[in-house]
Fold these 2 entries.
Entry 1:
Amino acid sequence: MTPRIELLQGDITLLKVDAVVNAANKSLLGGGGVDGAIHRAAGPGLLEVCRLLDGCQTGEAKITKGFKLQADYVIHTVGPVWHGGNNDEEKLLAGCYRNSLRLASDYKCKTVAFPNISTGIYHFPRELAARIAIIETRKFLEESQLPEKVIFICFEKENLDIYRQILNM
Ligand code: AR6
């Protein structure tokens, strides 16, 4: 159990948190999956500012306002595409969590929600991805007062069960 970690199942676009993390691609110009859902819910203002960001490297993160979302900010991070595991996928996914949390802390966010980055269209193995997300988040929270709370929001029950088991929740 980690008191500053919370687990939910559902749609990240509906959450009233300080920041939601988006599983984007390197262009930061929208796409399918959670990226498409976040852009739809935030409205066209989000795409307009994303055009000014000059993309984002895999494992890195950039921040924008949340526009029509309930969340104040969107932290856009680019997860690795799973190519079998010998292309730094684990390190890059860890970077997504670490760099997103650092931005959240820099912007004084108390609550941050993460989707299961890379486990959809990018095919990262779900259990390995969950372990990396949890390890990286715990490490960060040990060293930082902010964010006060990190929410892992799973769209599918399968991912929720994986997180429940690892977190013992
Ligand atoms: N709320 C929370 N989680 C969601 C939602 C939602 N509304 N919709 C999907 N998920 P994916 P990736 C889950 O494919 O694998 C985009 O086209 C989904 O079930 O969205 O990192 C980008 O532009 C899965 O568990 O992201 C990139 O090109 C998780 O979010 C590419 O997909 C991530 O799935 C990124 O692929």
Entry 2:
Amino acid sequence: MLKQKQDIRALTKEQLRMFFIENGDKSFRGNQVYEWLWHKATHSFDDMTNLSKETRTMLEENFVINHIEVDQMQRSNDGTIKNAIKLHDSLIVESVLIPTETRTTACVSSQVGCSLDCNFCATARLKRMRNLNPDEIYDQVVAIDQQSRLYHNHKLSNIVFMGMGEPLLNYKNVLDAIDKITSDEGLGMSPKRITLSTVGIPKMIKKLADDEVKFNLAVSLHSAIDEVRSKMMPINEKSNLAELLEALQYWYNKTKKIITFEYVIWKGINDKQKDANALVMYCKQVSSKVNLIEYNAIDDGEFQQAAKEATAMYVKTLEANRIVVNVRRSRGKDIDAACGQLANKTS
Ligand code: SAH
């Protein structure tokens, strides 16, 4: 039987160095290969031109470089690009490039599908198939950076983990990917330009704080009333708002980084003054700001975006209480690339 070749990017730099020593070569070859694999993001041993032909053949015999492929690319009339990304085992995830006047943001996926059942999100309709590996997350960033340079004439400026999946349920791989994205041996991006968005898993938020991460945290709140939140996000039944708050206070005390609450206002669900008041009460207990995001309808039409007046009422209530609030306009809606619309469907 043919030996199953190992994915070379699953090796640490130290393991690569060891591999060369064990094969009678110098350890620095490991550094050279590591640089090709990450900093230069090459997908072929043949590109590694500072290695001899024999070394390249030897690598080829022992390893593969699993990599993603942009299977399909759709461009919205607002400049947003949605990519269907094919993984080495043919599963598909989506990544989005979101341009503004001054910057481009990559919205990346962390899992194939999602195990959480938020009832307003299209990705929740897909079964969780598997976690993405660090290189699969890294490659999405590289691909979007290339598109940013090609279509928008500047490099990628920000990354948000707001694509498919729950990043805190793929903790190790997400943190490993971010390490490589921010390291000078990788893409050298500042962690200040990276935001991880979570449904809010208290234990893992505390772990992030303990691990002293330097990136930003966003939490999908959507309601500060347990009964309402549990209805929209079943995770709230396992860990309620009080537990979440306690974890967020722990995060802030350790990192001193302000938390962003993502919040959608739905008609007849959380569009009343009492909902806004509850949000104010919640925000006052931890250093935070609010992003009000537009609801992007998913096919079943069960939920609707609240009236403009409801957004205005929230803004007024939050501002009266000196809580920073931004109203976020949706991008890429025409190609189903907006928040909560990622569901591997092509139009
Ligand atoms: N699992 C993570 C990241 C993925 S979702 C999280 O829950 O934060 C990214 C954001 O899109 C979340 O705030 C999510 O609540 C929001 N979202 C999901 N479906 C949406 C929809 N149909 N319209 C608008 N926002 C949606």
